[in-house]
Amino acid sequence: MNVGDRDGIKQIVDADQRGFDWFLDKAFQVIFFIGGISAIVFIFGIFTFIMREGLEFILGNFNAAEFFLSQRWMPTSRSNPTFGALALILGTASVTGLAMVVSVPFSLGAAIYIGEFATGKTRETLKVLVELLAVIPSVVWGFIGLSIMNPLIIQVFDVSVGLNVLNAGIILGLMAAPIMTTIAEDAMKAVPDTYREAAEAMGATRWQIIFKVVLPASKNGLIAAILLGIGRAFGETMAVLMATGHAINIPTSIFDSVRALTATIAAELGEAPVGSDHYGALFALGIVLFIITFLINLTADLFIRGSRDY
Amino acid sequence: MFEATDLNLRQKKIEWLIKALLSLVTLFLIVPALTILAVLIYRGSPMISVEFLFGDPTNGMTAGGIFPALAGTIWLVAVSLLVAIPLGISAAIYLSEYAPQNWLTRMINLAIINLAGVPSIVHALFGVGAFVYFFRFGTSILAASLTLAIMSLPVVIVSTLESLQAVPRAFREACWNMGATRWQTIRLVVLPNSTSGILTGIILLVPRTAGETAPIMFTGAAMFLPFLPQSVFDQTMALSLHLYTVSTQIPDVPDALPYGVALVLFALILVMNALSIGFRTYVRGKKKW
Fold first, then answer.
1. pLDDT band at A14 (very low <50, low <70, confident <90, very high)
2. Rounded Cα gap, residues A131 and A226, in angstroms
3. Does B75 contact A at CB distance below 8 Å?
4. Which residues 6+ apart lie within 8 Å of B271 measured at CB?
5. Under a CB-based contact definition with an 8 Å cutoff, are residues B278 and B286 in contact?
6. How many folded domains does chain A comprise?
7. Which residues from chain B sit within 8 angstroms of residue A132, using beta carbons?
8. Are B183 and A25 in contact (CB < 8 Å)?
9. Best B42, B110, B126 residue to mutate vs chain A (most A CBs within 10 Å)
10. Are residues A256 and A290 in the same domain?
11. Contact list, A20 vs chain B (CB under 8 Å)
12. Which of A96, A112, A114, A139 would you mutate first to test chain B, the one with the most B CBs within 10 A?
């Protein structure tokens, strides 16, 4: 293999180092630096702009007690619009919670199988299939909830509506599974082989090695995997919009329809007049979503960094 | 000779059970994906025809084709890639070739992680607040594509960074020792040796961007607009939003129609993924270091 382009390198050697090339080098350094800090600019930009649109409402007609404790989300009521997000918060929480109950054992189990048991072709195939799960777009998942899961749930559980917490929970669980599986597998792979070899030399079986050595050593990475899965499910929009039934309701069973925070924004932003309280309230929901996902990601990052001190 | 003791046998049995259980669990994760694929192909493929792919929606979107949506998705993805690729690649080059170990680099990494975790609907809110109203792009391909570009930026950065870091450090050192500047090293050594990896990342980005719905709903995609966009300041239809529209907003849509739309969207994704896997294997075969 040629290490780069030989003629090019010869040119470099022949060229005057302090002239044009020096300035070109500096110019590109600046360009790359701008690219580098763009991520910071954008994350601040996102926060600034959703704050800017939501702030007027938050400083004006916003009532924190109502927002977090009332379940009356009636933004378009002409006489008395109320903005109680409790039912939406609980809707998101119930769906995300069920998704995790479904997804965590399966994802971690799959990660252990793919990382520690499967070998060669099986392993590659399984990884590709898990990736396949990851690339199905959220609107297609929503459509699956609507057209496949909905009749299935009605038939199997003999309930009147199949668009509910169960439906969205399963869908979200499947959507969050690939990221959890991948990150959990990475975390387990990062455990040095010397740990495994030491345990094997003591006469431990494969399962004992995994359970007593690999899992405890990769604990932080596994927690990060679960957190990122929660973040994924929590922020999901189209799938929950289509599969939850989108009814404002505090759920008492998994067969209740609910409405999620994200779905509310997606369903109502189009009809909320710009600058109105309704518009501001939707941005306030966005601020809540932004802050919660920010905290989840930050915590996950701390766990991932914590896992790297072998 | 060694004899298997009862304890050995019991442990073997337990291990076999656990392995079976775990493979079953993995299977449970895989089966839904394959089932979905099968159902989409089974129920969607009767819809696929030349008229469906290249026709306009008719009869209040209950019949006809999806061409405006297909074309719109191509516009959106192309414009967003035009922005995300240069920005993402330069960010990755900065992180890989220049960034010192300091608080700023740590901040950049944190920002990338958080940008990747921001819910898509929050990106949509940002797009509305920033591009549609503040910068006055209106609801247009430009506003929607910029929103998509910011969403895909972390993906470009992470995948590019991986390929850049796969180039051995000795390659760079050899070049520096010849008296090359950093930029010359990047242009002549680092980039030529990581092009394939960067390309793979970009190929994988296409279906992800094409599948996004929430970020474009309010920034540039229209539910029904049977014209092809003429410039980036026009609104457009998009495949992903079209699937949402025909499956939830329009009454009396024939059952097969949304399956057809979903299948086209999914086929696009599968083709791009297969392409990138093929490309990756081909490149891996050629790599000599």
1. low
2. 17
3. no
4. none
5. no
6. 2
7. 33, 37, 270, 273
8. yes
9. B126
10. yes
11. none
12. A139
- What is the distance between the alpha carbons of residues A283 and A275, in angstroms, rounded to a whole number? 10
Three-state SS letters, A261-297: HHHHHHHHHHHCCCCCHHHHHHHHHHHHHHHHHHHHH
B277 and A177 within 8 Å at the Cβ level: the answer is: no
pLDDT in tens, A139-182: 999 999 999 999 999 999 999 889 999 999 999 999 999 999 99
Decide if B280 contacts B200 (C-beta within 8 A): yes
Q: How far apart are CA B92 and CA B158, in angstroms?
A: 7
User: Is the per-residue pLDDT at A17 higher than 70?
Assistant: no
**Structural domain boundaries, residue B205:** 51-286
C-beta atoms of A132 and B193 within 8 A:
no
State whether B129 and A49 contact (CB < 8 Å).
yes
Same domain, B42 and B162: no
Q: Are residues A184 and A261 in the same domain?
A: yes
pTM reported for the whole predicted model: 0.90
Which residues in chain B touch residue A276, judged by CB atoms under 8 angstroms apart? none
Which of B228, B212, B223 has the alpha carbon at shortest distance from B145? B212
Is B277 part of any domain?
Answer: yes
A83 vs A133: CA distance, rounded Å: 36
Q: What CATH number has the domain bearing residue A118?
A: 1.10.3720.10
Radius of gyration of chain B (CA): 24
Domain extent, residue A92, equals 85-306
Q: Each residue of A193-209: b (16+ CB within 10 Å) or e? A: eebbeebeeeebbbbbb
Based on the domain organization, do B21 and B85 belong to the same domain?
no
Query: What integer pLDDT is reported at residue A1 of this predicted model?
Result: 43
By CB atoms closer than 10 A (0-12, 13-18, 19+), residue B45 is middle
* Backbone angles phi and psi of A216, in degrees to 5: -60, -40
**Cβ contact (<8 Å) for B32 and A289?**
no
* Chain A residue numbers touching B30 (CB-CB < 8 A): 126, 129-130, 133
**What are the pLDDT digits (tens) for B104-141?**
999 999 999 999 999 999 999 999 999 999 999 999 99
Contacts of B23 in chain A (CB under 8 A): 113, 117
Find all residues with CB under 8 Å of A162, minimum gap 6, and list them.
Answer: A149, A150, A151, A152, A153, A154
Q: What ipTM score was computed for the predicted complex, to two decimals? A: 0.90
Q: How many domains is chain B partitioned into structurally? A: 2
Residue B6, in any domain of the structure: no
- Residue A182 and residue A192: Cα distance in Å, rounded? 18
Look up residue A37 and give its amino acid.
Answer: I
Q: Which of chain B's residues have a Cβ under 8 Å away from the Cβ of A5? A: 188, 192
